[in-house]
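TL;DR need structure tokens for one chain.
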Amino acid sequence: MNHFTTIFRKEFTDTIRDRRTLFVMVIVPLVLVPLLLFVVTKLQSSSMKKAEEKIIRVGLVTNGNAHGLVQLLTDARGLRITENIPADSAESFIKRDSLDAVIVVAPDFDAEIGRMHAGAISLFYKSSEDYDMVKRRLSAVLEGFEKSLTTARFKKLDLDESIVSSIRVEEHDVASAKERFGKTVGGMVPYFFVIFCFMGAMYPAIDLAAGEKERGTMETLLTAPVSRFQILLGKFAVVVLTGILSAAVSMLGIYVAILQVKEIPPELLAMIMGILDVQTIVLVLSLLLPLTVFFAAFLLSLSIFAKSYKEAQSLISPLTFVVILPMMVGLMPGIELDPVTALIPVLNVSLATKEIIAGTIKPLLLAEVYISLVALASVSLWGCAKWFEREETIFRGA
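>> reply
TL;DR here they are.
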């Protein structure tokens, strides 16, 4: 145990002296993540406000019909109406950015309305711009126009509008606010800290194996009167610790970012703070521990195999996308934690975290996630130890 402690202290001291490791483990999650979230939120809020206040240029072709619609559009705030444009040029006007939208009323609109039929109105717009604000604002006007026509029609027939409603649905959502928030936003939370957990473990793993081989200090370390397993265990513990610390710091960074966003309503902020309690954080970190053990063992195995720091980087860096992929799958609708997904590494952590935040985690599924992660971590550590025992691996290319 004394040998392990000595190796651990030595390797951990060397690791925290490395600027790249400190940058990835502390600076990025604690400073850049809150800054990034803050800037993105501000830009999105500003962009949405700008889109809502934008003057929409609307071309209108009535063909002598729908006088009530003309009045509604004229009275609507933030619309600039241009009438009497060629109906067949509606698309070209929008594509040339001369207009934001064009409304074309069918020539027989009034006649169809008079016969108690539905009149046709065409709305041309470009959906890729300003969060579909053009469509939403004009659809609101058209819906108001439709309601006025419907009301007039029922009045003419001397009927109550409620006659068309055969049933009245009363919705009662039994899901708590915590459940709704957890299911909606909870999937994004593990996306951050699993990535930082992997990145926090990546650079120490590269430096403590491939880096030492490149510096020529690995041979010196192997001549020490300790077993190879103790040497590996000391390096391994440092990689696991940096990964967990990086994930914990990323949680702190998200917490700081939430507090800095003033646009969050006080009620929602109180709910978020209530969700991020000690029990939730401890449960999430306990899931990350065996996952980090797997990351550490796998990363160290690749780093031990590599001839140099640069080769280790080229082998390990693409794995970031392998980690991101199951996290993205976990964000997809319909993907839930079940006996099958609980066995898939990374994805099971993402889905379990979402359930933990929502407060709907099932103990049996959570136990299955723990068992699968611990089993995977144990196998990967055993494989890494066997890999480290091989002379041709350690001195590959020497």
